[in-house]
Amino acid sequence: MKTEKAQKPEWVQNLAPGSELSVDLRRFLRYGVEPLPAIEDLLKELRPCQVLCLAAKEEPVLLYTILGDMGFEHYAEPQGKHWNVYFRKCGC
After folding, report:
1. The pTM is what?
2. Domains of the chain from N-terminus onward
3. To bridge 52 with a disulfide, which of 43, 65, 82, 87 should be the other Cys (CB 3.0-4.6 Å)?
4. pLDDT per residue as tens digits for the range 32-42
């Protein structure tokens, strides 16, 4: 059974260039560093309704649960050999 790709939500479609806080998780993993503490620090820096964009080698499914429990929603899209994953606080 083929899974349908989720439609890109409006909050990602309307993201103004440079308005998101971005980090490339591949750099952490390349050096064997666990990225979760850095992600948690970045979440503290987010302005209200600002989006966190993560570039990851693989789809970071575990983060969906961890950040979802912290009140964040997400959208992920494959980009060639990596994934772009967007998080924002629910209710924005």
Report:
1. 0.85
2. 20-89 (3.30.110)
3. 87
4. 999 999 999 99
